[in-house]
Amino acid sequence: MRRPITLAIVGVLVLAAACAPPIAVRRDIRGAQRLAASSVLTSGEVSRRSRNLLYARDLLEAWAEDRPGALATLHDDFVHGRLLPQDAAVLSELSFYHAAHGGGSPYFLASALYAWRYLFLDDPHATPDRFDRRVMVVSELYNRGLARGLAKGDRVDLRPGSYPLPFGTLEVSMAPETLRWGDHQLYDFFPAAELEVKGFETYYKWPGLGAPLAARVTPTPDGDRDLLAPKIRVPVAALLRPADLSHDLGAGTVRAALEVYPGYGERKVRIDHEDVPLEAEPTATIALALAETAGWQRETRGLIHGAGVIEERARLVSSRPYRPGLIPVVFVHGTGSSLVRWSEIYNELDNDPRIHDRFQFWFFSYETGNPILYSAMNLREALTRAVAQLDPNGKDPALAEMVVIGHSQGGLLTKCTVVESGDAFWHNLSPRPLAQLDVSPETRDLLQRAMFLHPLPFVRRVVFVSTPHHGSYIAGSWLAHQFARLIKAPFDLTRRLTEVMTLNKAALAAEGIRGAPTAVDNMTPGNRFVKVLATLPIAPDVVAHSIISVDAAGPPWQGKNDGVVEYDSAHIDGVESELVVRSPHSCQSNPHTINEVRRILLEHLQTLQPRAAAQS
């Protein structure tokens, strides 16, 4: 009896299965979204549209067993008109998939070419709808396919030559000036889209066409050296422009020109009577440059060692080549710090088109243990040399609208660019006029340059960030002064001061002066330097702003601090604006600090039009 019953049950089940509906649905919001957005770039699997075409051409089984053969069939169908022009998007995705699974460079390059064919169809009426999500996917396939197709190790090799394709040969030409950027040469291209960036709170990408790369830059032999940082990387977009792709895909030999556009140059390029935006990865480029240079490793050395840590030509550097019409924004870091600490605010500001198109960013570095007057001298002279070097004939009015932003000790250096000191600092050393001291001409020159300050005529606006105008209580601590004993003053300064003290003991303002003070000494509350600087008014034609960090709730802010500087020390009268930011001392990455600097720069732009009209 059991056997017939079993057979009956099986029969019922088979019958039920045969009668079951062939199509079923189940509500799965996340699953449906994943499937809708799935592509070889997002999930590693081909999209539904690509599977649709494989099914329609009865190639699903062939794709599973012989991907090159299936692609060859689709290519033949495409060039002979048996597929729609829009199906080039499918060929691009399938070629990329196979390239990533063993097909290699020929298929990556084929993916880029098919993508171009889809994006720039011969029939303008067949142009993909702007709401079709494939447009963005195919643009990314072009960018990624080109970068990986030209890859050589972990770099991208941009050069002319012949490259194999699955269906023939790619003949690439490249004009000699392609890798020139003004008076600079682009080289060492890293695929920026393949970088995972950590450490930045925000990430910026300029969407568009072109393989996004991070390039090194070096001056050409016939070019003048400007302020461009020696180890900087800049975002560039590589574009492969086919000559006649509709014909060449069928002929087997594809001709194309390789073009390179710096991300800080043209934002768009003309293709078939259309202005096409270029892709760039500025945040990834910044991160790569910082990781390669490891500038933060010099911060402690720059505090202890008074010379030799920072090369003379690297004291003032820019993030891109000088271009007339862009207003310099100069960042000056604080004690035991480096230009790396400005990376977050730079990443934010330079990716704001309102600011990117009107400002250029410079960074000043210095050994932060040196006497502040000595470092301030280096800042003033570096800025003066830069303006003279970049604009010797004084034809660029933008250079005369400079904005200087200083954090902590850097704020004190910043103030030294916009004050008239007379002999106030000199009297801290000697009551006698400098001309009456028995010193060499070299010593007299150094003392004159360091201790007699005049406003720089091209600095029109300054921003003080967490600046100890009346000294830092941390600098006045016993531990700070014990540490200050390790700081070594620059040799030239030590030698000159030794000469002054040896030959002019009777002329010194106070007994017991033994050598150059450190920055820690200068920032100690009550120190003669910081007391004098606090009394000096900012030049009347300069606009000043304060951003003060306080690591406590408030207001009132009086008596509170950020762990390094008291509010009462950072607060000064006479500024156009003061913003208190709830933050520890290093507040450069605080979004309120960044937004305030953004506001100040945009305000600076608004003041230029009335000023220009008054001068005309």
What would you note in describing this structure?
It is a single chain. The chain is of the alpha/beta class. The protein is 39% helix and 17% strand. The protein contains 23 helices and 18 strands. The strands form four sheets. Strands 3-4-9-8-7-6-5 form a seven-stranded mixed beta sheet. Helix 5 runs antiparallel to helix 6. About 1% of the residues have low confidence.
CATH class of the largest domain: Alpha Beta
Q: Terminal Cα separation, in Å? A: 112 Å
- Label the CATH architecture of the largest domain: 3-Layer(aba) Sandwich
User: In what range is the share of β-strand residues?
Assistant: 15-25%
How many H/I helical runs?
23
- Main sheet properties: 7 strands, mixed
Order of adjacent strands in the largest pleated sheet: 3-4-9-8-7-6-5
Which fold does the CATH topology of the largest domain refer to? Rossmann fold
Radius of gyration: 32 Å
Oligomer: single chain
Number of strands: 18
Helix content: 25-40%
- As residue ranges, the low-confidence spans are 302-306
Query: What best-fitting shape do the alpha-carbon axes yield?
Result: elongated
Mean pLDDT across every amino acid position: 86
User: CATH homologous superfamily of the largest domain - what is it?
Assistant: Alpha/Beta hydrolase fold, catalytic domain
Secondary-structure-based class equals: alpha/beta
Count the domains: 3
